[in-house]
Amino acid sequence: MEEQASTVLIRAAVNAPYLEREEEHALAERWKRHADQAALHRMTIAHMRLVIAMASRFRNFGLPMSDLVQEGHVGLLEAAARFEPERGVRFSTYAPWWIRASMQDYILRNWSIVRGGTSSAQKALFFNLRRLRARLNRDAGVSSFDMYERISNTLGVTADDVALMDSRLSAPDTSLNAPLGDETGTSDRQDFLVSSEPLPDEVVSDTIDTERRRQWLEAALAALNERELKIIRERRLRDGGATLEALGSRLGISKERVRQIENRALSKLRAALTEAHPEMDATAA
Fold it and tell me: From CA 218, how far away is CA 210, in angstroms rounded?
């Protein structure tokens, strides 16, 4: 459907008559003051040649010509919405900036899956690098370093930005699922990505072991009396465990007494765990 719509626009543009200055001004006034849709249509169709000519300049970015024309038409409508005929400027002079901006935004959004060219300087680099590089390549003996330096000075960006953009423009996006060889069954590119995260089976194993140990500990805690259990929970089983002094103050005993009770409780826990689970390393408790 979009392809057909673009074809209709292109045919209408080819057959549309040029507008004289007075007629263009009158149409702009009718649209601006009375929201005359017929006037808007005549004015934009007459300037679709601008859109088509500009779209042809961006064909080397590998995007469909029909999409560029559609985006340029959006820019043309935006220009019509903002145009002020009383300033005495021709619409054909005013509209190209909006047409070009709309196409460039579309190219930046769709040329690569990696977003780039977000600042005005980066946009200038993206759209002018090839032209400047081709011009400098005609000068014999220009190294890549000198080329990047000259382009960076011309466009007001760093040489590193130029080198990075040059590498991006020199190669297309590659899928991580693309095979490394022509034969079936070969490895994908993503198979060689290094990850510091544990493997899925390790995550599952750790989860199961953690839950099992939690259950063992809860059963062993039943061997403690009320004071021992409170001290172990406050000192060992909570983030930022209480200090001996703070816990002793709350229980009305000395911090040394808290330490003695804690050590006795830990010994009980080790004994209970070793008795219930001989296979478990008691020192890990």
Answer: 12
Angle at 135 between CA 129 and CA 141, to 5 degrees: 110
**101 within some domain:** yes
Domain of residue 267, residue span: 200-284
DSSP label at residue 221: G
Give dist(CA 285, CA 280) in Å, integer. 9
- Asked if residue 13 belongs to a domain, the reply is yes
Whether residue 105 is found in the same domain as residue 25: yes
The per-residue pLDDT for 285 is: 43
Q: What is the CATH number of the domain that holds 254?
A: 1.10.10.10
If one counts the domains in the chain, the total is 3
Give the tens place of pLDDT for each residue, 41-59: 889 888 988 899 999 988 8
Is 186 a domain residue? Answer: no
194 Cβ contact list (under 8 Å, min separation 6): none
Cα separations in angstroms, 254 against 3, 141, 265: 85, 84, 17
In Å, how far from its chain's centre is CA 19? 44
11 and 87 housed in the same domain: yes
Q: Could you report the per-residue pLDDT of 87-113, keeping only the tens digit for each?
A: 888 998 999 999 998 998 888 887 765
Among 113-122, 142-151, 267-276, name the one with the lowest average pLDDT: 113-122
Give the 3-state secondary structure of 49-79. Answer: HHHHHHHHHCHHHCCCHHHHHHHHHHHHHHH
Asked if the structure places residue 176 within a domain, the reply is no
Residue 12 has pLDDT above 80, yes or no: no
